Amino acid sequence: MNTIRTYYENTKLSELSAQVIDCGEDENGSYVVCDKTIFHPQGGGQPDDQGIIECAASLYKVQKLSIPKEGPDVIKHYIEGRIDVGSAVTMKIDLEARWLFARLHSAGHLLSNAAGLISENLDGCQGNHFPNQSFVRFQGVLPSDLQSFKKELEEKVNELVKKDIPVSNRFDSNPRKIQFGDLREYPCGGTHVSSSSEIGDITIRRIKKEKDLLKVSYDVKL
């Protein structure tokens, strides 16, 4: 049985009832697997969600999440202690942290869209959406005047933010694809806002060339 990822359906869902379908230990410690989960595991440049699993009045902090490379498509939740197979549990995440991760991740996608609108020869190819270290790397024909491009890109991406562009998900591929309105879609397994206005103001902290790539570091307003 696979783990249903409910965070694809509702980014702001903070609590979920589930059932343990597997448990055990591996090199990372003791873990449980549930029939569904609210926890997003680190990947695609986004951190693990933070939170707890509650079972029979006991609380277990989720210390780490992982997706096994082989076997069923499940998510392991690492905890201190043991929860038996068949147990009913309640999962609770830190919604404030989740929402920041989603805003940063969506901002990275929107930056790629904004850069593509400025120049069709620029395409986002890599990203990191961790707080205080978020960036997108671009490939293609790089701008010669970096400071002018920085200003133009920040203006363009915030223009898109203010347009309140809806975000759609397409699940006919793995990973699914995320799209703002009719702008270019990108494959992504992360969490996202439902419209561009939910991202808030985006600030480009710095911009620099790295060999044949352009690195754009950014933040969202807290």
Question: How many structural units, i.e. domains?
Answer: 2
Helix vs. strand class = alpha+beta
From the N-terminal CA to the C-terminal CA, the straight-line distance is 39 Å
* Low-pLDDT ranges: none
Total strands: the figure is 16
Radius of gyration: 19 Å
The SSE order reads EEEEEEEEEHEEHEEEEE
**Overall geometry:** elongated
CATH class of the largest domain: Alpha Beta
Q: Given the structure, what is the number of helices?
A: 2
The level of helicity is 10-25%
Tell me what portion of residues adopts beta-strand conformation. 35-45%
Q: Numbering strands along the chain, what is their spatial order in the largest sheet? A: 6-5-9-2-3-8-7
Q: Biggest sheet: strands, sense, closure? A: 7 strands, antiparallel
Q: What is the CATH third-level topology name of the largest domain?
A: Threonyl-tRNA Synthetase, Chain A, domain 2
What is the annotated CATH architecture of the largest domain?
2-Layer Sandwich
> How would you name the CATH homologous superfamily of the largest domain?
Threonyl-trna Synthetase, Chain A, domain 2
Can you give the mean pLDDT? 96
Overall description:
The chain has a seven-stranded antiparallel β-sheet. The protein has a four-stranded antiparallel β-sheet with strand order 10-11-16-15, with helices on one face. Strands 12-13-14 form a three-stranded antiparallel β-sheet. It contains two helices and 16 strands. It is of the alpha+beta class. It has two domains: 4-93, Elongation Factor Tu (Ef-tu), domain 3 (Beta Barrel), CATH 2.40.30; 98-220, Threonyl-tRNA Synthetase, Chain A, domain 2 (2-Layer Sandwich), CATH 3.30.980. The longest helix is centred in the middle third of the chain and has 24 residues, at 95-118.
